[in-house]
Fold this protein.
Amino acid sequence: MEDFSALCLKRESCRDYKVKEVDEEIIKEILKDALNAPSACNSQPWHFYSVSKDNAKAFRKFIGDGLGIINGFCKNVQNFIVITETPAKLKPGVLGDKQKFAQMDIGEATAYLTLSAKSKGVDSCIMGLFSEEKIKKFLEIPEEYKVRIVVALGYGVKEEPRPKQRKDFFEKVTLK
Ligand SMILES: Cc1cc2nc3c(=O)[nH]c(=O)nc-3n(C[C@H](O)[C@H](O)[C@H](O)COP(=O)(O)O)c2cc1C
């Protein structure tokens, strides 16, 4: 069992991948972990699309689309997970519409997914830059779903994680 704090230090945005696909069984295990993420009212406002090797070449063109070379590091990536937000059915009157709960839920699922991946030796990069329109068409995603995040999955060239660049503890935390 991996120590969780160590896992948090090891999970990083990987931007240099080997040309190596992730086994479908491992992808399924990662997705099972992501599906165990919490969500407001347990609404589970998400649907995951797993893009594997056969479709990766075509899919890569939609990442950073129209934005030059941004996310061009995906050239070797053989597996992607597209996380879509689906219409959430929250208890009426309880949570209302004041918060974007579904977007928080997607964030939770993304964290579960990337940490699960790392626990299985799989590197990842969360990406927010892509052509939603082209992805929806390519994957035949229903109109009412919103593509929130694309995660690259694969095996990084580098073994050792870089030191985390984070603001000071007390700039971001208040102990009362
Ligand atoms: C919502 C979101 C969108 C992101 N989009 C991109 C992206 O399009 N391209 C990229 O290279 N990294 C992207 N990242 C990764 C962040 O740059 C990265 O998490 C941050 O710099 C911290 O580095 P670390 O993940 O290595 O700890 C994104 C991260 C999040 C959470």
In short: The first strand starts at residue 46 and ends at 51. The radius of gyration is 17 Å. The mean pLDDT is 92. Helices lie at 4-10, 24-35, 53-60, 101-119, 132-139, 169-172.
